[in-house]
Every structure is written in structure tokens, then in C-alpha cells.
Amino acid sequence: MTHCGLQAEYSFEAYFSRIIKYTAFQYPFGHMCPGSFPMTEKAQKRKENRNEFRVEVLEAFAALITAAFGLVAALAWNEAIKTTIDNFFDKSLEVTLGQFGALYFYAIIVTLIAVLFTIWIARASKKAKSLLVDEEDE
User: Fold this and answer.
1) CA distance 8 to 2
2) Number of domains forming the structure of the chain
3) Whether 33 and 46 share a structural domain
4) Residue 21, C-beta contacts closer than 8 angstroms, at least 6 positions apart
5) What H or E segment, with its residue span, contains residue 6?
6) Could you please report the per-residue DSSP string of 19-58?
7) Residues 101, 129 share a domain
8) Assuming Cys at both sites, which of 4, 25, 41, 69 could form a disulfide with 33, CB separation 3.0 to 4.6 Å?
9) pTM assigned to the model
10) What are the C-alpha distances in Å from 75 to residues 36, 81, 86?
């Protein structure tokens, strides 16, 4: 059933209750179009607050995920540097050059992954935020 250009199925009771509820807003032909009623200021403010909250949550998640990747990279570098210093002052540890290389290789790979994911998260956050802001403008 199409009504006012919208595809919808409405019962007579639902349609009639909407007409009664919004009698002040009528179309030129004297009938009401369900779903086309103007938002009240309170509803508009609630929608804006909801979108602002979604943006804040999105920014917080992006910051937390970025911090987590930073922490993993920092711990990888911490282990590599700690092993180097311990081996420098305590010659009895017998850490081979291959083990040093593996620790530094791991730290570099984790850092690169953290940087790439941070860039990806920032782009995704920016895109999602722009979609929420565009939705708010409608």
C-alpha cells in the first residue's frame, strides 16, 4: 500500500490514531502522511544528544584501541632494551645475537602493526563520525 509516496502497511487504528494525534499538521489535500510529521524541539534535541553521545563513544573507543596498540609496542621495545642492558652488565646470561635480532625484529614488527592499525582506526573513526554528523544534519 503506497501513501504519500511511501511504501507502508498501516492498520486503520494506527493510521487513525496518528491523524488524531497530529491534527494540527495537515497536507493540502486534507490527509495526513504517516511518518512525515515535523519533529518537536524536544525530539530534535534528543536526536542531537544521541548523535553527540555516539560520536563521543566512537572517539573514546578509537583512543582506547590506539592506546592498547601503543602499549603492546612499548612492551615489545621494553623487553628488547631490557634484555640488551641485562646482557651488557651481566655477561653470564649468554644471549646470542640471533635472540637479540629476534627481540628487535619483534619490536619493529609490532610497532609497524601498531602504526598501521592506528592510521586505519583514525580513518575509520573519521568516516564514521562524518556519517553520524551527516545523519544529524538531515
Assistant:
1) 6
2) 2
3) no
4) none
5) strand 6-7
6) HHHTTT---TTS---TT-PPPPHHHHHHHHHHHHHHHHHH
7) yes
8) 4
9) 0.59
10) 56, 10, 16
Q: Are residues 60 and 96 in the same domain?
A: yes
Q: Which residues of 94-113 are buried (b: 16+ CB within 10 A; e: fewer)?
A: eeeeeeeeebbeebeebbee
Q: Determine the length of the chain.
A: 138
47 shares its domain with 113? yes
**Which triple of cell numbers denotes residue 125?**
573513526
- Written as nine digits, the cell of 120 is 586505519
pLDDT digit string, tens, across residues 75-124: 999 999 998 888 888 777 677 888 888 999 999 999 999 999 999 988 88
Tens digit of pLDDT for each residue in 36-53?
556 677 777 777 778 788
- How far is 129 from 138, CA to CA, in rounded Å? 15
**67 forms bridges with which residues in the sheet?**
none
